[in-house]
């Protein structure tokens, strides 16, 4: 063994350092690597993608709400149409009942016009409403206004009476003094 060449061994400290040193081909950990243009572009794309996804979700939600509103409006329209159809049927049956009791004939129109009334049933109804409104306006007046009116009328009559008496008195004095 003495004739063999001595084997060269590195010292133990160098061995430990080599074990803990990363291999040359390995890249540094990502936390220590400065961001590159490629990494920034990737981050921007990911952020844009997330924003687009959020906008898409918001648009889908808005679209769902709009569809619900349209569906509700369609249901309301359908209900209103069915109510309108019911009102039309009721109007037609009421007109039929009216015509059965008093048909709308040219003779009836002529009689209404001769009486100074409108020539249609609708016109007569309107005239009746106007007359009722006038009656209510007269009946529902303020009693104080009527009292004031009556008091003023009485005052005017009294003043007119006094004025006539004075005229007659002046005429009589002028005539009586020279005549007697």
Question: Can you characterise this structure?
Answer:
With 180 residues, the protein is mainly α. Helices cover 77% and strands 0% of the residues. It has five helices and no strands. The protein has helices spanning 12-20, 37-101, 106-114, 121-139, 143-179. The longest helix is centred in the middle third of the chain and has 65 residues, at 37-101. The N and C termini lie far apart (196 Å). The mean pLDDT is 77.
Key words describing this protein structure:
mainly alpha
Any idea what the radius of gyration is? 55 Å
Q: What is the 3D form?
A: elongated
β-strand amount? under 5%
**Number of H- or I-type helical stretches:** 5
How many strands appear in the DSSP assignment?
Answer: 0
Q: Low-confidence stretches at least 5 residues in length (pLDDT < 50)?
A: none
Helicity range: over 70%
Structural class: mainly alpha
Brief write-up:
With 180 residues, this protein is an all-alpha fold. It contains five helices and no strands.
Topology of helices and strands:
Elements: H1 12-20, H2 37-101, H3 106-114, H4 121-139, H5 143-179
């Amino acid at each position: 063994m003495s004739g063999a060449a001595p084997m060269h061994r590195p010292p133990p400290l160098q061995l430990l350092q080599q074990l803990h040193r990363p291999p040359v081909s390995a890249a540094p950990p990502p936390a220590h690597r400065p961001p590159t243009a490629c990494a920034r572009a990737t981050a921007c794309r990911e952020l844009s993608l997330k924003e687009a996804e959020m906008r898409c979700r918001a648009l889908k939600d808005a679209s769902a709400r709009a569809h619900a509103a349209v569906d509700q409006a369609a249901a309301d329209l359908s209900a209103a149409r069915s109510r309108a159809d019911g009102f039309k049927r009721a109007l037609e049956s009421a007109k039929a009942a009216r015509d059965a009791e008093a048909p709308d004939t040219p003779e009836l129109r002529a009689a209404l016009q001769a009486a100074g009334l409108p020539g249609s049933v609708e016109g007569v109804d309107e005239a009746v409403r106007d007359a009722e409104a006038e009656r209510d306006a007269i009946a529902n007046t303020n009693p104080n206004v009527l009292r004031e009116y009556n008091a003023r009328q009485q005052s005017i009559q009294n003043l007119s009476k006094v004025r006539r008496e004075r005229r007659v008195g002046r005429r009589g004095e002028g005539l009586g003094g020279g005549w007697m």
